[in-house]
Amino acid sequence: MKTTLRTLLLTGLFTMAGHAADNLEQLLEQEIVQCLRIVEDPDGQTNVRSGPSTKAKVVAQVPSGGVVTVFPEDAKDGWERVDDNSENEHYIHSSRLKSVKAWKQIGAPTLGGDDQSAVLKQAGAEIQVKSRPFNAKQHTITKDENGQPLVDGGQVWGQDGGLPARTIEMTVKLGGKEVPLPKEALQHLYEPFMESLVLLTPGDPAKQALIVMTNGDGAGGYCVAWAFENGGYRGRAVFVPF
Question: Which residue range(s) make up the domain with 14?
Answer without folding.
Answer: 5-28+102-239
